[in-house]
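Researcher: Go.
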Amino acid sequence: MPAEGSSLQVSARSRSAILSFFLLAFFWAWGLGFLAVQVKASSPNLSSILLMAAGFAPSLSGLAVVAVFSSGAGLKHWLAHCLNWRLPWFWLLGAFLAPPALMFSAQALHAALGGEVPPWPTAGELPMVIANFALVLLVGGPLGEELGWRGYAMSALTTRVRWRAASLILGVVWGLWHVPLFFLAGSAQSHMSMLVFLVNILAGSVVFGWLFEQTGGRVLPAVVLHTSLNTWAGILGIVPTASSGRPYALVTGLLASIALLLLIQADRTRPAFVVDAGSVGQVQPPFSVTCLRSFCAGLRK
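Model: Structure:
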């Protein structure tokens, strides 16, 4: 069984297992991406399928590594822990609302600097917006990546180093994994500054790592955060275009500031989540939630 405090068996978090995961995630994604480019002219549909399959490389690599390096019970235990949805509601709500709050702030700064802010979706476009959330969740990165990056890699790395170092290591790897997209015509990265993107990914990895630490290694909050980030970026016009990249640069600056604060803050006691998939322990809520509860209690007196 896994050691206390870890959802992975010892063999599944060995150096060879961690290295195998990273190599498989890169070779899988980059190899399928290369094939997609080669067949695009003759078979665009096949090219699209290959690119979508490439996006699932981290999660499937995590599953493969845990399956190979663990017993059957070890794989089941790891999956049950990662996919355990029984955690306090405010973590999921915060993961969903934090990205638009950050992006609204960036757009406000953009407007103050004389930039043009895109219009909000109309009521008639609301069904399409909701459908976009589902589409991003399924094929836009969250399901394809988070079981691997956070579910496996963070779980394995934090048995060797603290969450801050693990987040920075993973942020570098995560950023490099995306590099081929900068040379792929039509990708979101094709209009981005590579340096700004890599800073964005590194800062984002710290935020994801903090969320992972606070929620006892659960993957669902990371999936919600990833989905919210990618979807709201399109809705609010944050994704860079050929004519403007400032909103994305402002979001990156704000995100880097948040990441720096998380890196330098003192560690609080880790929430006492138990590893058993059928239960959840006590967790200390964010300071804002504590304040809100105290305020409401005062009104009832």
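Model: Residues 272-284, 287-292 have pLDDT under 50 and may be disordered.
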